[in-house]
Amino acid sequence: MMEKITFENLQETLYHEKLENGLDVYVLPKRGFSKTYVTFTTKYGSIDSVFVPRGKEEMVRVPDGIAHFLEHKMFEKEEGDVFQKFGENGASANAFTSYTRTSYLFSTTEKLYDNTKVLLDFVQQPYFTEQTVEKEKGIIGQEITMYEDNPDWRLYLGTIQNLYKQHPIHIDILGTYESIDKITADHLYECYETFYHPSNMVFFAIGAVDPEEMIEFVKKDQSAKTFSEPEEVVRDKHEEPSEAGIPAKTINMDVTKPKFSYGMKCDRTNLSGDELLRQELAVSLAMDILFGRSSDFYSKAYAEGWIDESYGYEFNLEKSFGFAVINSDTEHMDELEQLIKTTIQSTAGNWSISDEDLERARKKRIGQLMRSLNSIEYIANQFTHYLFNDMNLFDILPVLEQLDGNDLKEAFGTIADPKSHTVFKITPAGQAK
Amino acid sequence: MFRKTVLQEGVTLYVRNTKQFKTINLSIKFKSDLNVDKNANRAVLANVMQDSNAVYRSQSEFQRALDTLYGTVYYTDVSKRGDVHILSVNTECVNDEYLKEQGVFEEVLNLMRVVLFEPNFENGSFAEDVVQREKRVVKERIRSVYDDKTRYAQKRMLELMRPDQPASISAYGNESAVDQISAESLTNAYNDMLASDEVDIYVVGDINEDELIQKISSLIGLKARTIDRAVEEVSAPDVKEVRNVREKQEMKQGKLQVGYQTPITFTHPDFIKMQVANGVLGGFAHSKLFMNVREKESMAYYVNSAYAAHYGIIYVLAGIDAELEEKAVKLIEEQLEAMRNGEISDLEITQTVALLSNSIRSSFDSAKGQIEVFDQYKQLDEHFNADNLISKWATVTKEDVTKMASNIKMELVYLLSGREATE
């Protein structure tokens, strides 16, 4: 049965139905929007390379980068390229693979149901041959090379690789030239059969869309197709020690100004649902207060010229991994590192966040959420991300309103241990030690 | 789509009342001619205006005030379009309807008045330390293009094709022009901007139009100014033979940029047709470049074409193995040659028109998109809307696209690649 969930403060209504084959279908109509954005996502990302294949009993390990490789290959069919069909129907299609999900999507202002049919069919009808798999290796090889030349990406990835010793998040989503070379059509079918069952997937439509009509359409399409019984996928448990794998590393690249990144690994990630959301928001608020543009840290570092416009910070948290990153281009790596450490230590040791700071940070986050809810792409992608971690995007507002100083203090404690921190640097070519 | 009110000669307000968004967007655009020194001054000015003002004397004080106003976003930026330089002052705040307190938008409007008319002056000019600091920041921004190899290759291509012309001049000026800036020159640039620039003010959100027009005209008291902008003349060099330029840095991928010239510019009657031609060539994932260079030859992860209509330039960019440069250029040229020979299917035209339509309608699904697209196209049609443009694309034929392809002429092949690769 279709359920209707209304979020009055946000003036949004979400429609949901779980189909017989296990597929979760969500629809969120947005007034005034001319386009519809539709995503079809599997809970399967780059970290899922060790698992029990459907119908088997033993764990297997498949080559790194396979989830992303599979995403590329879904677009090629016996009769040609799926982009052609979307183009004909006026839809702009795309896909992405992250650590934990693979998402296929399109946006359109016409022929919504024709395009929805194309999306459902191409994701649910795999077609891999040794020949098409071989051909893709050249394209993905160029994609890997493109990222290798991108210093900001290298900085981010390098930081995560320093932080994590065992958890597969330390492996590049794309894999390596060597690992993708080992991929075969059989691998792709094995991964597909295991992770692309409807019960492991979510369909989300948002924008100019009628909820009853869309849910009915998907239901009809799915009941005309045959699927095996829903089965929980058995994945590898990701163990990870609390200390950072590598405390510091420097590489060199052809850049004009050195790049600096400070990583902090979170030691409380065995959470889900409401607890996970509270933890994520509480750490994020603490980070805003300590490292945001209105912080003492920022004023000092910017005035001294230790950070510039490239400065940024973030906190990511999912089941099994979580980390904060602070980064900037800088000629003053040592001073910046020291100031970050002092800021963390003085906060962790002698909690100094005032109620006024908390209220201001809370208001800022509420505004940020409202702004994000103008973007149908943001809602679709984030909703799915939260759902896969048993959270609800629209619960952010009530949880934000409840957090108090103790929540922040406790949450910040989970990333504050210096032993779980790392530094990653990129120096201009020729300068690295 | 916008309600237009001329506040003063040269100062125009465009308002759009819509319930589509949970926020209200305001953007004030100061437009003037392009030149390196002016651009440099305005780039630094934009930063200084973002930093602080007479009420909030430091960045952190200002930022705290904005955070308290439910994370109101305030930022300035500079850009260029054709031969026009644009300094934009932008803000976005949550509509009161979604908040537990009222009056946020009122305060934000008032803040905009402060930002524009009450600068952080010491003895009649901008504070020296702020100016020096922001000069450094802008210089670093200019320099950082080098670190992004794709952007750098594009910049070099434009410099080689159109040296010292609007197509290649940066909206930030250059490092030596930034060096020349003093607190005094910056103060002059500020006064000059307020007194003589063409000013377009945009507001999009759930607002009462009449009330808002009243409020803005009383808050933003800019005097009348005469705008006399010469229509841009684009002159392309006479190409006897294609130039080949190769440059090297420490990197792995080859960044190929193929530059073409075309007499069809933004104001040309065939502009619409050229947009379709560019789409058929390389604007989308169904386009000839994607299908043949990427999917068929698996030579590249990205390969597409772009149409810089204001400058009469079309360019193709691709990330390739540097050793395959010749083959890639040949393949790219083959796609254009096919178009010149009329090898274009009805399907390709249908797909391209459909995706151009989707992209313009989609950009209207954000307030920023509505402002930017309208601001550009209003030069062609005061009553511009997406449906007008879409109906024009729909009339473009295969013959039109063939004709357009014959109006695209290769000028430059530029390759930025790694040192080890070919030496």
Strand tally of chain B: 13
CATH class of the largest domain in chain B: Alpha Beta
Low-confidence stretches of chain B: none
> In the CATH hierarchy, what is the superfamily of the largest domain in chain B?
Metalloenzyme, LuxS/M16 peptidase-like
Query: What integer value in Å does the Rg of chain B equal?
Result: 23 Å
Can you tell me the number of structural domains of chain A?
2
Radius of gyration of chain A: 23 Å
Give a short account of the largest sheet of chain B: 6 strands, mixed
Shape of chain A: globular
CATH class bucket of the largest domain in chain A: Alpha Beta
**CATH fold topology of the largest domain in chain A:** Cytochrome Bc1 Complex, Chain A, domain 1
What would you call the structural class of chain B? Answer: alpha+beta
The succession of helices and strands of chain B, N to C, reads: EEEHHEEHEEHHHHEHEEHHEEHHHHHEH
How would you write the strand order of the largest sheet of chain A? 1-2-3-11-4-10-9
Any idea what the CATH superfamily of the largest domain in chain A is called? Metalloenzyme, LuxS/M16 peptidase-like
Structural class of chain A: alpha+beta
Helix content of chain A: 40-55%
